Amino acid sequence: MTPDLVSNEHEHRADPPAWKEIVARYQKPAISRSVWQIVNTLIPYAVLWYLMYRSLAVSYWLTAPLAILAGGFLVRIFIIFHDCGHGSFFKSRQANNTLGFLTGVLTFTPYFHWRWDHTLHHASAGDLDRRGSGDVWTLTVHEYLEASRWKRFAYRLARHPAVLFVAAPLFLFLIKHRFPYVKATRRERDSVYWTNLAILGMATGLSWILGLKAYLLIQLTVMAVAGSAGVWLFYVQHQFEGVYWERGDQWDYATAALKGSSFYKLPKVLQWFSGNIGFHHIHHLSPRIPNYHLEKCHKAEPLFQKVKPVTLFSSFKAVTFRLWDEQRRKLVGYGHLRALRRQKRSTSASRV
């Protein structure tokens, strides 16, 4: 095995000593960059809230563009929250936890509870035998064909773009995050309750200052924009052409990171708002790298540049992906099922 990526029909593997040494160079947080990221994200977000409130007196159509911009900043706030959860934004654990809780309130996400669930996602991404932790519901072709009619209906509904990118984000951030999982420990459960209390306090205070109607209109619009963008980013990061999925006994951590997580090459302005999370292959290889070091790490090492990028234009094809075909080792659409049925009927007819 060489330190480079080795290609075959199934996977790309990285020599562990090589990639571990490489990523270690970029894992150290820079306090100046972390603080500047807080300043250039939270302050504009607060200013936009003020402008949105004032614009409502004129027209909601003036508020809407501001809300879209604010949604972009809220995505960036979530990336800061995300880095805190990985312990990569500050050197201090307490600083990460404190900022993580505060940004969690702004994004309606309980910090410790999310961190626990997200850790499971990183440990199992691309493993067909460990699906269900922080990922998009994905069935194999065989599982879908063996499923009941109601399960197929639920799956099709859950994977419909209007549900997945519009309804689901609002449900996730406004409702689902308000309740802890049954398996959550005491700290994770308390994280949900304290976050809910803080959100209630924030909502009460802003409703008193701005008025209930204005607060709800602004908050829900911004959350809808940020939630849809965030879920789309997460979806494309793990549902793309050439993605890696493998059964547990064949699953490999480095391969799952480099081939099971996309290099989403976005225009610079979108890359900025998304906090470099498009370099997701590197993030999954080493979650301890701060978001502002991901691009530098990618550009400095030929090892990572061999990962094929997913462009903004090509990423829209991901909407057509529905199921994982284990035989063909690729994501396919529902049209593939019709082809299988035709093939089955043809085979049956030939036997007759």
Structure description:
The protein is mainly alpha-helical. It has one domain (16-141, 160-322). It is 64% helix and 5% strand. The protein has 17 helices and 7 strands. A 3-stranded mixed sheet has the order 3-6-7. A hairpin with a 4-residue loop joins strand 1 (6-7) and strand 2 (12-13). It is globular, with a radius of gyration of 22 Å. The model is unreliable at 1-15 (pLDDT under 50).
Helix-strand makeup class: mainly alpha
Element-by-element helix/strand order: EEHHHHHEHHHHHHEHHHHEHEEH
Helix content: 55-70%
**Beta-strand content estimate:** 5-15%
Compute the gyration radius: what is it?
22 Å
| Count of individual beta strands | 7
Distance from first to last alpha carbon: 51 Å
- Strand line-up of the largest beta sheet: 3-6-7
- The number of helical elements comes to 17
Low-confidence sequence ranges? 1-15
**Mean pLDDT over the full residue set:** 91
Quick one: overall form? globular
Largest sheet: 3 strands, mixed
Provide the number of structural domains: 1
